[in-house]
Amino acid sequence: xxxxxxxxxxxxxxxxxxxxxxVAIGAYGLTQALFQIPFGVISDQWGRKRxxxxxxxxxxxxxxxxxxxxxxxxxxxxRALQGAGAISGPIMALAADLTREDQRTKAxxxxxxxxxxxxxxxxxxxxxxxxxxxVPGIFWLIGILAGCALILLxxxxxxxxxxxxxxxxxxxxxxxxxxxNSELRRINFGIFALxxxxxxxxxxxxxxxxxxxxxxxxxxxxxxxxxxxxxxxTPFIMRADRPxxxxxxxxxxxxxxxxxxFLLIPARNYFFALGLILFLFFTALNLLEAxxxxxxxKLSPPDAKGTAMGIYSxxxxxxxxxxxxxxxxxxxxFGISGVFxxxxxxxxxxxxxxxxxxxxxxxxxxxxxxx
Length: 371
Hints:
The protein contains 14 helices and no strands. By secondary structure, it is mainly α. It has a single domain (3-366), classed as MFS general substrate transporter like domains (Growth Hormone, Chain: A), CATH 1.20.1250.20. Helix 2 (18-46) runs antiparallel to helix 3 (48-68), helix 3 packs antiparallel against helix 5 and helix 5 runs antiparallel to helix 12 (305-334).
């Protein structure tokens, strides 16, 4: 909810520069990156729910600091504390704990789609919510939502059985096991590149839309783009769970991401072309957001899924930090086109690495092979 409105709001904060706007957007990703691996490893040993609850509480305090700040540095501090509640890895590992192997791909895809849906809802709602309560009000609102998540965690979410009570105690050994897996390294680079592109884009996309619409009406383009992209991705997600389909869909999504990123350079000058290219961008984004955690779940050791998801989430949020900080700096030095060129280069690097690597060594259940 912050992404579509923050770049415009931040211009009125004291001490602001284009680079610091990017840092404020990306600071959340930096601290997420720093804490994802420790939280993931600890969740393998201490239990998922306790770690998730602690992360939500930290996030709430960061939201309060950001809501009360009137300088760019105060918002950066609040965003950094929000990110220190780094629970994406433990949450995905909890989902893996609570699902059977033959249902895990579907579960991860549903979670990925729910993340995409919440992202879409936030993007669409943010301009209107900003118009009603402002960006400080949004920070208060997301703090309240984190409190609701805390309640759901203990009231609704089942308690997992600790399948691996004697998991390795050495964080270094756990990390080495995951890092030595070349397939997981490839996936981790992918999520790094994806979120670098996403965060860099949202340093400048709100500024582009502001040339066509008042910011409270930006949802006029976000809503149809996101709804249509969700519809377009559904047939591919349904096929991706079957042997033989995952690689072409995966590579095609990366290619579409790079093409749409490059086409945003000329399309930003034409309103309807901009909407069309954003539709292609979000179709690729949503597909990849659903596919990547499924791949991590299938490729990671059963007794180290928390660690694997922690490393995956670290790459994801470090990408968000690099994208925000680098996108802000490039925007200040080279303009909007420079940001989209950056995103195109990230996508091309990811496509080359994925295209030239051996096929993913996925393990399929008998029921999946039969279908």
